[in-house]
């Protein structure tokens, strides 16, 4: 090694030692002709002093710009009394430089590398100079955190006797899923691989192969429009186990997350995690990934409004819908603009409008609301009692078909919470980790557009055993053995117990999903075949590793925990990808571009 | 868990316990009406007995076929005296079944799963039923070995304070390298990603970013013709370190391999590994990846033949070439057919023919060779003395330009060794691990066809400091700071110290490689730019993880250590990939197929 010590190592006990350090110049300060350089490496900082007594290196040091790379040799000196910095490991000493090698001078930086300043810089500029952005304390900390998280998970899974197995990413196209990246095959003209969206099929084959416990930190690919903080390639902690039931999976994942939180944040997460059925999660929180760090639960007022004079509610109820409400306590000071934003959000989710009551005083007659005049005393009293209404509250309603009403009011609940946090009337701690399982999802959804059922999770998901008959009668009423792991309102993973009986799987494809036989064969034929050769009961899960790292790092965007992320247009601004291909490349691959670049 | 014990757990001390086991039926045997089932799970085997006293499950067990999946509950019984199997953990007991659940019946197997039999089966059939092939003892052992190897490497690198960083695989096209897989971009019409051939550029950017020590078990992609045991996607242990010299890398990798061999094979590998310069490796073994488990070294007879009457040798020497020879001791009984095969191999490498001498007795006059009559007594004596020739030996020659002569005779050396092993006159142990470093490679090669120099390793490789001037004069004579790690004749990894000075890198691109400025800018512009913002000295390496696992597993092909490999035509015979894409998919991607499938 060129260096004798890192920049986070030297203390008073090293005084008078001759040392060699390497690193980046964090800053150069001139105090009365003496130059003080803060030298930074991955581990920390050390103060290096260039004295005019050593004129050659003193002059050279004068040319140093921030972020240049240097190697220095010198003598460790205790700092003078008033200049000791007790907050730094190396705060007791400085190194008096005797030799200086300038490895690499730094040009003028395109943006400052102090976190507070850099985070106000245009993200595209940061992405273009990602090698500089990653030098910042916060970003290098996030890289280190991700590495530690990966090690924690792998250690846990190895201890639990999972085998790490790598599965192919050059897979076949499965057009019914999310949009895929295609890869033309040179050796098979006119044919394409698809980049694997997940190792789902391969990991089930590994169970048939007798692996029993599989894991992989699997790179997965989805060609999505990159709204909502998605990336074209992402990493999931992918697992599958044989001879298990749901309880085994809960225990395994809880153990993994407890260790992960302990190893990375030194936080003790209590177990077992609460469990909510899908129905309960929707009813209480209006979401299948509820944030339970605050209450503001949804209440159902369908019975109270069964005979209401308010036609909007009544007609929904008559059609079998529901009326639900929340009390956003203390949000009675909501502005017209804020109401409008909420209403727009509700409408975007299919609501016709947003009914609400601003509570003033104790007497419902004094409350303010366009709907107040339609409500009977009994109805108002029911609201008041059940929602524990007090002066200054805001009551918000959703009336619609059950699932839609839940989703709308769940969204309104989150918006309300944000407004309350902004007003400092509520606090939602980033240091509180409310893990929970959501279970008993419906097995099937009805796709009204296509006029047929589609798998809510995926078509290999097993129904709850006692619901198999129901699956044939009304597939949306049958519960599946799927589970999601939710943290603070984010789904951080999900999976299911799979079907391992070929007859049942066949029935799901043909009789429930009504997929034509030839399509079943071309897409899933080999899996159905494999299930005839000794397939064990099995189930699995996939955890979103990028999302988990973002939560551990208390950062909003997964782009911050990915070393070289793509932009929303799928571009790597640093390396300039994607780009044009040569005619030769395309002809080798038997393809041509059929649309000009239109922008 | 459904089971109470694995199939490798129960002993005499569990007698009379009621247990539940799950697994695959390895075999069913009927002894006088009593059915004996060997039940197998990932961990081992347990004998389960179905007695006619329990008629219901006895009848059901009678229908079981090999490889069916069952769950049984029963009572542990000590085996009778003569039936104890001391070679099995569970050999003292059997489980008398009381309950049987048949989870999955197995169809008739397409091929037998005993290793010896299965390995004679057509590989395509095995690949089509990979989920069965992987159940075999040998294959499941290889999967477990790979998982263990990965864990060993990761633990070592974490202890050495390497950060694991994931880099993108959707990269830009770099058409000068190996052939790439292209991925059309939907969001950027007419543009393409290339699947990364290695994280080379990103890992160098991570060094500029100050990561200092990076590693990744990186999936890499090359669209090669899949001869010679290559796979389109493969895994490399990818590393890069800042502030190091070559010695630091040697020490780090030696530590990694020592731990890996200990953890997986319990073999102690001695360090430091021997080092050979490229020139020495070529001169002595005729290869830059020499197998040193046996000698048969090449000797140079150029001086001895300087005035030879044998025109073939003389004319080569007059043109500055060399004459080299090996003594394949004891191979004097080589057949005409074997000589022909060797000669063909030599010719395929550019030789005009293969000169050889079959040694009979002690007197050179009695030796047999078409070239004997041209050789002087002094020349024969030189051969005899320096090659320590004895009765029954075979002397083989190569005469050509130095590099070609070395390569040809190196190949002949390996062929000779194989023939000697076949004759049991030599043994090359699979349990001997001769690691070595090959260093001081030439920096540049001259591409006669293109009429210019090309980088021997890659264009970021640093020259040996004292050879920088030579690089400008004669680039092929300058040595690089590249290194290969070689094991038993296989290159298992390679890397280099990189250039971190933008001026030197620029000079290499423009003055040595003569790459036009615009091409340099479009391909490497961002790297050259990054090197102006505080780039530390750095170097790295990549180890071929698939090849290493194959060597650890004592298997010839990397296909055996990859869970789901592709065929030589790049096909996944199990899942049927690649396949056609829909018109909709192609139009979304702005491409069309321009050649019909021609087969």
TrEMBL record, chains A, B:
GO process annotations (BP): aspartyl-tRNA aminoacylation
Cellular compartments per GO CC: cytoplasm
Main location: cytoplasm
Keywords, alphabetical: Aminoacyl-tRNA synthetase, ATP-binding, Cytoplasm, Ligase, Nucleotide-binding, Protein biosynthesis
Catalysed conversion reaction: tRNA(Asx) + L-aspartate + ATP = L-aspartyl-tRNA(Asx) + AMP + diphosphate
Its EC number(s): 6.1.1.23
Subunit text: Homodimer.
Name of the protein in its database record: Aspartate--tRNA(Asp/Asn) ligase
Protein species of origin: Rubellicoccus peritrichatus
Name of encoding gene: aspS
């Amino acid at each position: 090694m060129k260096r004798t010590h890192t920049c986070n190592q030297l203390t008073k006990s090293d005084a008078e030692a001759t040392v060699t350090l390497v690193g980046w110049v964090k800053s150069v300060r001139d105090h009365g002709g003496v130059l003080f350089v803060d030298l930074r490496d991955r581990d920390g900082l050390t103060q290096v002093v260039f004295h005019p007594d050593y004129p050659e290196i003193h002059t050279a040091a004068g040319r140093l710009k921030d972020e240049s790379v240097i190697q220095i040799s010198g003598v460790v000196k205790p700092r003078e009394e008033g200049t000791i910095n007790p907050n730094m490991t190396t705060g007791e000493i400085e190194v008096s430089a005797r030799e200086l090698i300038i490895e690499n001078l730094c040009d003028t930086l395109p943006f400052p590398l102090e976190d507070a300043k850099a985070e106000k810089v245009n993200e595209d500029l940061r992405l273009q100079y990602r090698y500089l952005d990653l030098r910042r304390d916060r970003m290098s900390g996030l890289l280190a955190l991700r590495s530690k998280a990966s090690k924690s998970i792998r250690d846990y899974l190895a201890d639990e006797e999972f085998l790490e197995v790598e599965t192919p990413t050059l897979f076949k196209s499965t057009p019914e899923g999310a949009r895929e990246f295609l890869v033309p095959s040179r050796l098979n003209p006119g044919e394409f691989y698809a980049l694997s969206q997940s190792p789902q099929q391969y990991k089930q084959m590994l169970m048939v192969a007798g692996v029993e416990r599989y894991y992989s930190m699997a790179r997965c690919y989805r060609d999505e429009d990159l709204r909502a903080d998605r990336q074209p390639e992402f990493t999931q902690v992918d697992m599958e186990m044989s001879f298990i039931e749901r309880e085994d999976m809960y225990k395994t994942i809880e153990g993994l997350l407890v260790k992960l939180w302990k190893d990375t944040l030194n936080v003790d997460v209590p177990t077992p995690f609460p469990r909510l059925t899908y129905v309960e999660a929707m009813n209480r929180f209006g979401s299948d990934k509820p944030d339970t760090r605050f209450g503001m639960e949804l209440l159902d007022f369908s019975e109270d409004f069964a005979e209401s004079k308010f036609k909007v509610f009544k007609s929904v109820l008559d059609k079998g819908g529901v009326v639900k409400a929340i009390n956003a306590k203390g949000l009675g000071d909501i502005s017209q603009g804020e109401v409008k934003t909420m209403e727009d959000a509700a409408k975007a989710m299919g609501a016709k409008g947003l009914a609400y009551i601003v509570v003033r005083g104790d007497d419902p007659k004094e409350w303010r609301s366009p709907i107040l005049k339609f409500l009977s005393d009994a109805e108002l009293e029911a609201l008041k009692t059940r929602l524990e209404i007090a002066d200054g509250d805001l009551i918000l309603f959703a009336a619609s078909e059950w699932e839609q009403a839940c989703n709308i009011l769940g969204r309104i609940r989150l918006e309300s919470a944000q407004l309350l946090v902004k007003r400092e009337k509520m606090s939602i701690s980033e240091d509180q980790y409310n893990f929970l399982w959501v279970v008993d999802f419906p097995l099937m959804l009805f796709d009204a557009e296509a006029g047929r059922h589609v798998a809510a999770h995926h078509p290999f998901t097993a129904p709850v055993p006692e619901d198999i008959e129901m699956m044939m009668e009304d597939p949306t009423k049958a519960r599946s053995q799927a589970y999601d792991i939710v943290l603070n309102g984010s789904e951080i993973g999900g999976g299911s117990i799979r079907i391992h009986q070929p007859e049942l799987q066949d029935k799901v494809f043909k009789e429930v999903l009504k997929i034509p036989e030839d399509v079943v064969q071309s897409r899933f034929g080999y899996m159905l075949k494999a299930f005839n050769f000794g397939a064990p009961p099995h189930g699995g899960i996939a955890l979103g590793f990028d999302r988990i790292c973002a939560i551990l790092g208390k950062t909003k965007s997964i782009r911050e925990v990915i070393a070289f992320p793509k932009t929303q247009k799928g571009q790597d601004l640093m390396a300039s990808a994607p780009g044009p291909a040569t005619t030769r490349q395309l002809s080798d691959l038997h393809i041509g571009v059929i649309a000009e670049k239109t922008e």
